[in-house]
Amino acid sequence: MNYTLHQLQIFLKICETQSVTKAAEQLNLTQPAVSIQLRNFQDQFDIPLTEIVGKKIFITAFGLEISEIAQSILQKVEEIQYKSDAYKGLLVGKLTIAAVSTGKYVIPYFLTEFLQEYTGIELVLDVTNKSKVLDSVANNEVDFGLVSILPETIAVFNESLLSNEIVLVAGRKNYEKYHTTAIHELDQLPVIFREQGSGTRFKMEQFFKQHNIQIKRKLELTSNEAVKQAVIADLGVSIMPVIGIKNELKNGDLKIISLKELPIITDWNLIWNSHKSLTPVAKAYLEYVKKNKQSIIAHHW
């Protein structure tokens, strides 16, 4: 065997993208260069790593096993570089986090001072819905996920950050109409939902099911910001996390409709795949969060 680290990187990228063309684009290489390196890498094995069906490339079972080993090798190589930099008093590398959309109101406060202290760290932050966050964690594509509901279908470790209150809110005009609403009357109100896959949507549906409420007038929007603006415009009421509407509550654009059954309380959690070997950067960030989260909460919340 005489393969190179470069070949391992190329093969791993092909496995990730399922495409020689996309791998070339992401690696800033030409397609012929990637194809040549793939062929040279394949020549060192008697068993096929890939197969072509139609015009699409597929990774064989053997190829998938090799890709797992390649990923492990490349991670160890990164650790060697991290160790070298650490001895020089540096911490450099990439920190990748996938956060649910409402998490954008949380995660920046847990990153600012860490990134100011370690200027050699590159942050990649993906703000998306809960389903995509969990997929990223399950597929080991990120260091951490940020969620308000711990997953039941994948094995993760977690570090709790702060509590998350979810309340029923209305705009100014709707509040005047609905502020005396009782829980059994919610089925008469126009209710704005987040899209399927959202953690807030999941909690809303749980709440309505628990109290045997069938919503008759429903509007679905695809982001917390869109829901917020729709509620402010009096299109309907919604159940929303307080952390994302603090300013609107303060200035009176949104008002909380008090129900004894609310608020719903969850916790914001940093999660990571239980089988993941954290990089030195990820380990350093986790230690920073554990050490500083109480002072961050006290300062900002």
CATH evolutionary superfamily of the largest domain:
Periplasmic binding protein-like II
Assign an overall shape: elongated
User: What is the CATH architecture descriptor of the largest domain?
Assistant: 3-Layer(aba) Sandwich
**End-to-end span in angstroms?**
57 Å
Strand content: 15-25%
Could you report the average pLDDT, rounded to the nearest whole number? 91
Report the total helices. 11
Uncertain segments of ≥5 residues (pLDDT<50)? none
Number of strands: 11
How helical, in percent, are the residues? 40-55%
Tell me about the largest β-sheet. 7 strands, mixed
Order of helices and strands: HHHEEHEHEHEEHEHEHEHEEH
Radius of gyration: 24 Å
Content-based structural category:
alpha/beta
Query: How many domains comprise the coordinates?
Result: 3
CATH class of the largest domain: Alpha Beta
CATH topology type of the largest domain: D-Maltodextrin-Binding Protein, domain 2
